[in-house]
């Protein structure tokens, strides 16, 4: 299940008289002030309905105009811009905005949007003022740049006020952010193994250190992760989620180091997402990933973006220890993993992906060759008479296709793969629709309806294919309040054996720096031939309080 953790800081909707003909967006002037504000002036041929809101992870300012077309391309920000790293346009809005124009301003790392103020200078001029909370490094950068100009409100898109990096210490340009979390994991029933516990407390820290230079063309990101877990020694672990150098040019980008890369569009099952290894001890939803060493060259062209990957260094999947819960019986013996290939072929993998936006379609086509991130398992008897499960990693070829069609309030999604190398070649797919009711009964509540179907050609007795014939239905509630309260509730139903998996996820911000996340997961009706049978006593609630700095 996806977290759906998109933070709406402010959402504004202003209505003005609409016209049958399309409004033209003539120009956009965006500038940065010394008072931590991003000011945007939109010049239109006629008045029209619009809304402005902020999305996070990554931080973006989005402005939608109803029945509007773009006349001229919007100028991209200079590398010396402190707040904006890029501007793009597309279609957006709800059912009432059938021909809406969406303008997205991608904000630079370290820039935290605080609030939005919308002003109407004239009937056809709309000013959006975004109040920002930049990091201390950004504030110091701004003060240094403003001191070299006699203008009390300099335009930071002007290269004449660009900071001379030799005037400030090297470390003053680093930006530090991150997350510190405290988690309580509680189970409703006693474990199947007497060594297991009903309550687990853990803490985690994931800082991020960021710096850019060369007028924004080069950047460095370092994000380590550490969790200490009570009882489960396998869940106490350290990982480098990201350690990346980036060189960005106009039509290509080169990234070298550890990274996390996500592919796919589905909510329930991410089939095409294969670059990173799953960090299964973090969460059984398979969305947490280990950092993967890679060299990634992205070619950005009019016909799409072509990503080329060289992936040295294989990462084994993590599994819970003997005292941990949500594990198999017997437990997986992680240190005894076996491989189909050895030497450099074991550690190397290669991938390629083409992606493009074609009208209302988002299209991705990918291929992966290398050691599978998903192991098969061997059951082995020990001299003591006990059993252990050995992970076995095979060499595979996987071709994937992901599609997403966004039309008015509807979203259609599809992910499909063909994989060879793990027994017989098989095909798997997940497809579904999502419909959103915006501002339900004028209450400010957005209600999303999600239905997905999962299919796999492997046998229903194959434990690696738990979703051969399954249906997911879910409701997503977005309250659009200041605290960004969100709830996702769903059930996954296996049409073959009638087993069910219930999931509820909720999140809410507390103040400017804290956030509470809650998950409740229940398992019902799994037969002893189903992969989830080992979890039949593992109904649980997970609560995390996180501090973001």
Question: What does the model show?
Answer:
The protein is mainly beta. The chain folds into 2 domains: 11-166, Immunoglobulin-like (Sandwich); 174-548, Porin (Beta Barrel). The chain contains 2 helices and 31 strands. It has helices spanning 136-147, 344-347; strands at 11-14, 23-33, 37-44, 50-55, 60-65, 68-70, 84-91, 101-107, 111-122, 125-134, 175-187, 199-213, 218-229, 237-248, 252-259, 292-301, 304-312, 338-339, 348-358, 361-371, 376-381, 387-393, 395-407, 410-421, 423-440, 445-456, 469-478, 486-494, 500-510, 514-524, 540-548. The strands form 4 sheets. The chain has an 18-stranded antiparallel barrel. A 5-stranded antiparallel β-sheet has the order 1-4-5-8-7, with no helix packed on it.
Radius of gyration: 25 Å
Strand residue percentage:
over 45%
Q: What count of domains describes the coordinates?
A: 2
Biggest beta sheet attributes? 18 strands, antiparallel, barrel
Mean pLDDT: 81
Unreliably modeled segments: 1-20, 93-98, 134-169
What is the helical fraction, as a range of percent? Answer: under 10%
